[in-house]
Amino acid sequence: MGGDVLILSGLWNSGPQHWQSHWEARHPAWRRVAHRDWNNPQRDEWVAELDAAVASSTGAPVLLAHSLGCMLAVHWAASGSPLRAAGAFLVAPSDVDAASYPIDPNGFAPVPLARLPFPSLVIASTNDEFVTRERALAFAEAWGSRYVEIGPAGHVNADAGYGDWPEGERLLLEFLDQLRT
Hints:
- InterPro entries: AB_hydrolase_fold, RBBP9/YdeN.
- GO terms for molecular function: hydrolase activity.
- This protein has helices spanning 19-26, 43-55, 68-77, 133-143, 166-180, and strands at residues 5-8, 31-32, 62-66, 87-91, 120-124, 146-149.
- Helix 2 packs across helix 3 (68-77).
- Helix 3 (68-77) links the parallel strand 3 (62-66) and strand 4.
- A 6-stranded parallel β-sheet has the order 2-1-3-4-5-6, sandwiched between helices.
- The chain is 31% helix and 14% strand.
- The chain has a single domain, classed as 3-Layer(aba) Sandwich (Rossmann fold), CATH 3.40.50.
- The protein is built from 5 helices and 6 strands, in the order βαβαβαββαβα.
- By secondary structure, the chain is an alpha/beta fold.
């Protein structure tokens, strides 16, 4: 695995107290994929922005995704892009098919349920307001992902007490090590 780590934030980007922001500050080589509009995401635009970031990466990158960023990763994988990812670390994938999703899914629904063409890990909470435990497990099974349940962790964001989240970073670093072997 010689590529970059690309951070895929969800709706509204990840604020300064979010674990993605903490990890990005600690690992300056990791890059957050920028979007023109964080508040009204359009699937095709976000997929194109991710494709451009993958194209500018050194080797196949690892996708470090949270929330809608997970849906972005799976839509990108299904987009037909000739580019490849080395793997995906998918935390709290939002269920854009559910009534609980807070905005119009703007093309992100339905959730792609094809096997991902790269290794992946889904990390889910038992009480996430944006995805049920059952749906998160179904996503992991459909995508061919390893599934890790971390208990009642809400949406695994700063509001749920997951600011720095050292346990998650440890899981990510283990995942990166596995991709290197």
